[in-house]
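Table S7 (text form). Paired inputs.
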Amino acid sequence: MAGSLALLGSVVPRDARVVRKLRAVGAIILGKASMSEWAVFRSLEAPMGWNAIGGQPKNPYVLSANPSGSSTGSAISAATNLATVTLGTETDGSIITPSSANSLVGIKPTLGLTSRAGVILISPRQDTVGPICRTVLDAVFVLDEIVGFDQRDKKATIAASKFIPAGGYKQFLKAEGLRGKRLGILREPFFNFSGTSVLAQTFETHFKTLRQKGAILVDNVEISNINVILDVRESGEGLALLYEFKKALNAYLSELLVSPVRTLSDVIAFNIKHSKEEKLKEYGQDIFILAESLNRSNSSQVKRAISNLKELSRNGIEKVMREKKLDAILAPANTPVYTILAIGGYPGITVPAGYDEEGVPFGICFGGLRGSEPKLIEIAYSFEQATHIRRPPTFKS
């Protein structure tokens, strides 16, 4: 229900494909996790994790800290052992950042590696479904079961099916998986914290560990167009997402068996009518209104924006990884390194990396090109086994 009162009581025609696949191998579905309402795509004013149905969730490590989102409930449920494994969806950071903030492993798969059928999408061009778990092993076991072709998400899944290795992903859970891997450290602008901070000291220790495990670190790797990539207006990502969201949401709502709303316009009207009941008036719905204002007359602008995003990826991460002969890039997972991966449909894995001065978790993110999950799993699992960072939540006030 995307955390929205507008979808309370709605009935879907079928389970999402990834849920059906998990049920088929014996998984017990406990329920739907809470999330940042509409995946933080209603208004940027609303706090991370908040939605009108469930309210504001807490970070189980430090209750006053940001629990992150938008897959907030999935991350908290996994961190607190309320569920053995969970799923999240990501458009731009929504698996990687809550996993980082809750000391978890999150896998953002290559676009189309997992079906999005049954998911409320922001962007069919960027959205992906992946596991959020306590260990790399658990996450990989889940990934193995949810990947694959789906007729209801044909275009994306057929293109990505070629990346699925024979024998699945479990074979890449190698304790010595870091040996020989070339890892590019994205210092700028992602390591912009004080050199005396816990984060800085922790990452320098991790770099030593990576080298000891046989990785080749290529330091100070620079993506020349990074400032454009991280600017949603200049890159065109913001416009593209707004346009894609309206179309995708209207398509999703039209298929519901029962629903009080059938279009984005209906949702906006519902929110206005029930703003006092929702206690959401102060958060508004500025993103919704912008999305609703777009129509076919904007299609040429959107095409140019999407073309620009592809070019930014080709001249950004793809160029750097090719020239430096990298197996993966790395950066703190609580930084917008996820945007580099998001705009090109690239995969990323975050693994617990430490806890800051207040005890708030942070992760390390390893990212690569499309279909590079085998290498990323080897890297992430080897790092996890060498460090064993994760500890249970403290519920510190």
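Next pair, protein 2 of 2.
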Amino acid sequence: MIIALWILNGLLALAFIMAGSMKAVRPKTALVASGMGWADDFADPTVKLIGIAEVVGGIGLILPLLTDIAPILTPIAATALAIVMIGAIVVHIRRKENATPSIVLAALSVVSAVLGFIVVL
């Protein structure tokens, strides 16, 4: 189980840290121009906050388990990322956009949380 958790969390962390850092660093206008039309519906600080939350969550998937310091934070981070992705699904559906990537990331985050709670507890 621990190997599956490491593989899943590694891939999720990579995806969330990359996507989150892009949202946190790039200006909102550049995000909208690159195809992230949803960003136009939010204030710039909100888009940055979403990006920072994804980066911190991605780090939270790896660091506590790696250092064995408070490993319970790993499934908690996965749960928090699943909640963020549920919000993303709602936004994409309301805008009549493709929500498939958000659905996949939400489902994988839930699987990570379940595996994490099984391994840690």
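The chain has one domain: 2-120.
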